UniProtKB/TrEMBL annotation, chain B:
Lineage, highest ranks first: Bacteria, Bacillati, Bacillota, Bacilli, Bacillales
Occurrences of domain ABC transporter (ranges): 7-249
Domain of life: Bacteria
Keyword annotations from UniProtKB, A to Z: ATP-binding, Nucleotide-binding
A Pfam family hit: ABC_tran
PANTHER family in the record: ABC TRANSPORTER I FAMILY MEMBER 6, CHLOROPLASTIC
Organism of this sequence: Brevibacillus fulvus
Family per similarity comment: Belongs to the ABC transporter superfamily. Ycf16 family.
GO molecular function, one term: ATP binding
Protein known as: Fe-S cluster assembly ATP-binding protein
InterPro entries linked to this entry: AAA+_ATPase, ABC_transporter-like_ATP-bd, ABC_transporter-like_CS, FeS-cluster_ATPase_SufC, P-loop_NTPase
Hydrolase as UniProt keyword: no
Amino acid sequence: MMSVETQLRFDREAISQFSKANQEPEWFLQKRLTALDSFAELALPKLEKTKIDNWNIDQFQPFQQEQELSTADQLDEVVKAEIDLTAAKSLLVQKNASIVYRSIPEELAKQGVIFADLATALREHGDLVQKYWMQAVAFDEHKLTALHAAVVNGGVFVYVPKNVELEAPLQAVFEVAGDASLLCPHVLIVAEANSKVAYVDTFVSAEGQSLVSNSIVEVFVGNGASVQVASVRSLSTEVHDYAFRRAIVERDGKMEWILGEINDGNTVANNTTILKGVASQTETKTVSVGTGAQRQNLTSQVQHIGTYTESNMVSKAVMTGEAVTILNGITKIEKGAEKSDGEQAENILMLSEKARGDANPILLIDEDDVKAGHAASVGRVSEESIYYLMSRGISRQEAERLIILGFLEPVVAEIPIEEVQNRLRQALERKLG
Amino acid sequence: MTAVPHLVIKDLHAKIEDKEILKGLSLEIKGGEIHAIMGPNGTGKSTLASTLMGHPKYEVTSGSVTLNGEDVLEMAVDERARAGLFLAMQYPSEISGVTNSDFLRSAINARRGEGNEISLMKFIREMDKKMATLEMDESFAHRYLNEGFSGGEKKRNEILQMMMLEPSICILDEIDSGLDIDALKIVANGVNEMRSADRGFLVITHYQRLLNYVKPDFVHVMMQGRIVKSGGSELAERLEAEGYDWVKEELGIVDETVNASV
């Protein structure tokens, strides 16, 4: 196959400069440069039924700087819609390669909690970051992870000490804007034993063409800790989005993912939980909507290693237009993970003849003494349900709207920040309108 | 105040796929009246209910249905509902992700029209009151519509909707099936509370049991897709005591179902 060599718009020099400007530790710069070399060598990830060779992988300006804002009022409208300015306490906002707004309550530090943007965390807690940096997702897994490690341009570090339970969720908003801009945040969450934290982020975009989002989330859930991560992505058709999220869960730990994949553009997302410790648990709930001509490849994956581990994955997708969504659910139970239980369900609602939705439940089981199950369905809005709602005076159009949004609602309702829930509902209505 | 409702069904024929089920059914229901339709299985009772509401599977081949002079058969399902028809269904759908209260508010507002929506406070007050009458736990307001409800809970929920929507013609399709005696009394209580001069009822049932608590003014026996015998509440009592054989004998009917060639 012929491939067109395209010139990168960045080099070692640009990376070194950005690293220096942010006063990053030397080890971090070295990791960036090593990753840049690997990027050139490595292949793209192999994805089920999705070819991404022609997607925008690396054609961007990685370090687009933005002005830091003194008040939240100055934030872009797309960002303001995601936050409750009166209530948002712990909030970081990143636009392109800059943190433009931060609100970090002092109480957090008093409890020993770190909630910081990545650059600050590298400066102030470098050793702690180094201990976990790319230990869940290896930088050389494939071309996209290597690229991420080379040009990472922001992100969030969350550290919750032993026995500390945070009531209010931590929030981040990531915005990408302007032609050929890159959003490349790395979210690193470390929850020590018996701690509890919820983190919510949203990915939004403003005007611009040929943008890229390449993000990684790594979560380390300590013994008996409980972590909830909710992420809603509503990037435009002009953004190609690559997201790799992974959690490693220790004994009795609990990891919950709530994901709203409602980009308008091409999307690759892989969400993996590794249930390492005995009796660790995970739940993954995903909603997605395919519209227009977009292509999405969404994978939810759980690896059971510890005994008595439990997982549950639910993915719901609504397909319209000529969109194509491949929904993969992978439950892997390793030899020795006795008494484990892995369940998964993928449900696709088709609203158009030309759209395609593939549900691929995969169970890979190397241990006999386990329970595992899957359910997949692809269907249309039931005429019987429409009839029922209409029989109460509701118009056909409104009945369809209620049923489609209702199909997704059980997942939406799980997001711990009401503004983000509401924005997601609005975004769903807009996408389905 | 609207005029006393008047539903007129004339010589109604309806089919599902290619099978004719209603074969010339005529009936008139006025406000203040309770009509009961009884009959063995397979005689077309539920088809009548679904056809009146406009279920897409049933096709009317001839005859007419009017409500206060308006042609019901010309109306879409939602228009029929807004015109005042209500069907408490035997097997209501489960709608995930739509809470009972959101759904009911949408339905009430659809009827009231834009600019005339019910206030949230008033809605909540009404709903609380009616749920109390039906001895429904408050949590049912926030549960998804019929999802995971038991058979009896679904039936109560149908009656709750009827009480909230205040229709002028209420059709109850085997609302008593699957209800224990206590639940039956509660449901009957809800129906009785709604009896009024500006509301008519069509109660479809297998059994006389429900009619002990909801006293009908008229009782009709349905066989072979039409009404074959009508009377007062004493007719229901006799059917309960003696079954349907005497009716068949009297009328010379061998096979009472709609399959019978007539």
